[in-house]
Batch of 4 targets.
Target 1
Amino acid sequence: MPLNLDALIRLLVLVGLGVACALILQPFAEILLWAGLLAVILKPLQLWLQRHLRLGRWWSAGLIMLVGLLVLIGPVGALAAALLSNVSELVELVRHGKQALPQPPPLLLGCRPKRVLFYYSDLKRLQLMSVKYRCIDRAGGRGRWH
C-alpha cells in the first residue's frame, strides 16, 4: 500500500520537528543525563529518609539538596578564600614595585612535585623576562619591547 502525499508530508513534518527538538535539547543533554543519574542513585537514600526519619517526599528531597549544596559550597568557599588571599598578596607586591612572583605556598614546597615546580619556575622566568625586556617610556607613557 503506497503512502499518499498527505501522509508523506505529515511524516516529514514529524521528522523535522523531532530533529528541531533534538537540536534544541542538545546543549542540555549532558546536564539531563547527570540529573537522571543523580535521581536514580539518590532515590534509595530518599526512600530511607522517608521511612526512618518519617519525612515527606519534599522534605527528604530538600534535605538531600541541602547536604549536597553544603558539600559543594564548603570546598568552593575555601578555594575562593585562598584565591583572594593570593590575589591580595600579589596586589601588595605590585603596589610596592616588586617585580617578582611570591613564593609558592608551603604545600607545594613540602611535596615538591616536579611538574608544579617547573611550571612555577617557568612562570617566574617568563615574568622576569617580560619585566627585563619591556621598557616604559615615562614621558609618553608608551611601552616598547626590546
Target 2
Amino acid sequence: MKSSLWRTPADRRAFIGGSDARIIMGNDDAALIQLWREKRGEAEQEDLSGNLVVQLGAATEELNRSWYERNTGRRVTDVQRKVKHSAIAWMAATLDGIVEGTDAVFEAKFMLPWAFSEEAAVEKYGSGPAQHVGYALEDLGPLNHHRGRQMGRNHDSHGPTLS
C-alpha cells in the first residue's frame, strides 16, 4: 500500500527514518547536531543534488534492481514504499523494495567500486538502518520473522499494523 507520508521536507521532521538512524548511531557529531536542528525546524535539510555519490546511487538504483532480478529470477515489488509503524509514530522507512515470494527486503546501496568491501559497506551504512527498517516493518508477519532472525530478535510478530 502506497502512503502519503513525507511529501515535503517538512513532513520528514515528524519521523526518524533509516538514514536518520545511521546518523544517530554513528560517530559524526556534526551530522547528529545537523539532524537534530533539521528535526526541530531550525535548519534546512542538506541539498544533496550536488553530491556525486548520492546522485550515482539514485541513478543506479533501478539498474541494481533490474540486475538483481535478472540474475536471481526474483521480482522486486513495493519499490519506494513508505511505511510507518502504527504504534511508534516517529518510526518510518522508505523501502527500496521487497523480494517477491520471500521474506526479504531489497536494499540498494551504492559504493564506489574502488572503495567497496563488505567491511567498508558495514562501516558506511552500519546496522542502524537495517535494524530501523526491521523494527518499522515489525508487523508484516513473515517478513518480520525473517528480519527479526537477521537482527537476532525473536518475538511474536502479531501486533500493530503499518500505515
Target 3
Amino acid sequence: MSAEEALSPVPVPLAHLPSGPTPSAAADGLPLPTVLRSRYRLEAALGTGVLGTVYRAVDLVRGRTVAVRVFPSALARDATFRARVLAHARKTALLTHPHLATVFEAGVSAGYLYLVEEFVEGPSLRALLQLRGRQPVHTTVTLAAQLAEALAYVHAQGMIHGDLRPETVLLDREGRPKIVALGLRQLVSFPHPPGGEARAHTAYTAPELRRGAAPSPQSDLYALGALLYELLVGTPPAGPWNGREAAPAPSLLGPPLLRTERPDVPPGLEQAIRQALAPEPGERPATAQAFRAALLAPPPSLPPFPGARDRARRSPLDPIAWASQPLAIGLPLAATLIVLLLLARLLDVLPPVVVPFQAVRVPELRNRSFAEAELTAKGAGLAVAKTRPEPCDQYGRDFVIRQEPDPGTLVHRGTRIRLTTCSGIRVPNLVGLREEQARIQVVHRGWTVSGVRFVPTTEAPPGTVLAQEPAPDLIVPEKQPLVLTVAQAPR
C-alpha cells in the first residue's frame, strides 16, 4: 500500500474497541520496563486515552528521553491502520517548528504499534488550568499567538491537527507551548468520544464536525478559540449539547461572551475570540495567521462577525416568539410583578425606624463612569460622594476604581457611598521590550499601536523598543494610540 493510499480520507473505525475510558497497551499486558525494537526502553506511563498509552522512554541509541505512544492492540492488528500510522509518521517527521513536538518515527515491535515523539518535560495546559484556574490576559495572548503560529505552519503544509485542546498542548521548562498528537485523531473514526472523553472533546469540536463535515483549518481555529476562552474564563465555552446529541442549528447560536466573566478582557480581543468561535466556518478568520494578527493587535472594538446580525434576528429569544407563549404563563408572571411593585411602594413609605425593611445592599459601582455609578446608586436609594482621584493603569479619567462600603454590604437607605475615581490613565512603559512583547502588553492593557518607526542602531538588539509616544508613565485623560520606535540592524 502506498503512502497516499494509507492517508486516504476514509479513517479506520473504532467500533470494535472497548468503550471504557482507558483502552491502552497497558491493558494488553505491556510490562515495564519494556524495550521496543531493541532501542526504546519504556520507563513510565504518562497518560492513557482512546489512542493508547504514552510512555516516557529512553532512546538507547541516541541517549535521549523521548515520548512513545503505544497504540491499542485492537488497532495495531489492523493492517490498514498500521500502514496509515507509518505513513503519517513519515509525513509529520518532516515538520519542524518551535511550537510543535517533533515526530521521530513509528514502527512495529513484538506486535506493538508505536509512535516516537519529542519528550516535553512540563505540564499540559489542562494541568495548568487545574492548578491555577483562569490565566492572566497577557499569558493567554502569548500562548495563543504561539499556538496560532504553529497552526499556520501546519496548515501551510496541507495538514490539520484535528484534536487541539488543553490536553494536547504541553509546556516546556521555559513555559513555551508544544502541540502534540498532530493529526492522530483523523486516523480513526468514532461518532462520539468513548466513555469519559466525551466532555474533553465536545467543547473544542466545531459545529460542522458534529454535523459530519471533514476537519479543516477553520475547525482548528474553532478549537483554538475554545481553548483561549477556557484559559481566560476557567471553563470551556458552554453549549446546549452534550456530545451525544445533534448540535443545534448554527443559525440559532452565537459565540459566547467573555467580558461578562472577565471584564478586564479588551473588547477587541473578545470579538477576535468570538469570531474564531463563530458557528459557521466562513465566519471565522480566514487563516491562523490572520487570527494571530487579530490577537496581537486587536482594535478597541470590532464590527460583528459576518452573519451575526442575521443570527440575532433569528434568535429563539426574539420577542415575537415570547409573545406567542400561552397566556397561562404570562398572566401569573404579570400578576406576581404587580404584587411585588405594590409591596415595594408600601415599604418605601414605612417609618425609618423599621430597620429591616429599610436596609438595602450596596450595588457594584466600580469599573464604570462616575455619572453611571451615581445613577445606579440613586436607583438603589443611596447617595454617593467622590473622594480624591488617583492615577490608574486601566481606566480613563472619572472611572470608578474603588468604593466604600464594598458591593453587597447591607446598609440603610440614604447611606452615602464613597467613590474613588481615576484622575487619568498611566501610559504603559514599553521601552526595552521586544516589539512582539510590547504588542502583547498593549493588548493586555487595552491600548492600541497606530504606527512603528524603525531606527538603524547598534546600541540595542534589532526589534527592541527604543522610545514611544506618548512617553512612558505619562498621565493622560483617555487611552490613545501609541507610536513605537523600534531598533533595526544597520544596513
Target 4
Amino acid sequence: MSHKDKQFGRRLRIRRQQLGLTLQELGDRLDRIHLVQVHKYETGQNRMSVSKLWEACHALNVSPDYFFRGLKPPNLDPKADDHLDAILESAGLVPELAKVRGLDERGRQAVAALINALAK
C-alpha cells in the first residue's frame, strides 16, 4: 500500500470520527457496504473507486480534495488549465473561466493561489 492510500484512509477515519459515525454507520451511507470494507479503506488495504469516493464525500460532507490535502501534487503541465477549470466550474464561476483562460501562465498561477488561499 502506498503513502497516498494510507493518507486517504487516515483522512477518511478522522472525518468519520469527527462526525461521530461508527464503521457500520459510514458503511450504510456508502451504499450499505460492510464495516470490514470501511476498515480496509481506512487502513489503506483497499482502494476506493471514484464513484465510492464521490459517495464518501457526500456522506462526510467534504470535497474530494479533503482526502488529498498535504500530498505533494504531481508535476502538472503548466499549459494545462484543467485543474483551474475544475475549481472555477465547481464554484459556479463559468463566466470568469473565460477571463482566466486569457491570462498568461503567471496570471493563472496567481488566480489558482488566490482561490486556494481563500478556500483554507
